[in-house]
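Anyone? Bumping this.
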Amino acid sequence: MSPLFKAMVPLREWERLMVRRYLALKHKSCRCAEVGVRDGYNADRIIELCLPKRLFLVDIWDEQWRYDLVMQRFSRPDVTVLRGDSVRMAQTIEPHTLDWVYIDGDHSYDGCLRDLLAWSDCVRAGGSIAGDDYAFPAVRAAVREACRVNRGLRPVWRWRQFILKADGR
Ligand SMILES: C[S@@+](CC[C@H](N)C(=O)[O-])C[C@H]1O[C@@H](n2cnc3c(N)ncnc32)[C@H](O)[C@@H]1O
């Protein structure tokens, strides 16, 4: 890890904490989803801070051992684990029923755009779509394109994380 990258790590964690705080304050007792969970590091922190009424954890989990780990870690009544392609999983959620979604799955331009568009349909008017790695050019371009295609999405924060507000237009 380069010294510059190392120095950025605490900054990234601080910003992720701020995003979770924003979501917790804005959406009390929320129904929400994390898209791209891996071993559940961020999911644990979402549960701690946001106290969701229902949290959907969505990932394809290519490695069985990781899926088993997550199933063990999050076997609780307020969490639903959805294994499969994120866009396909979005179609299993009733439209406009989530307060927010945090997107950290496929970081390619096409993958991220597909997630943004599919999951913004799951979020209610007044809800939020947040995500990681806005510093990646592909993610930045996908967020920009999603806001162009879906005129109901409005950026409220963009640095290394992003937050969009869904105004339901
Ligand atoms: C960066 S990791 C997520 C890290 C997690 N959000 C955290 O901070 O603890 C990205 C995850 O997205 C998942 N992923 C990538 N493409 C996906 C897709 N099309 N559908 C579902 N999950 C996908 C990968 O399996 C991987 O676990």
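Late reply, but here is one note on the structure posted above: The domain at 3-166 is CATH 3.40.50.150 (Rossmann fold).
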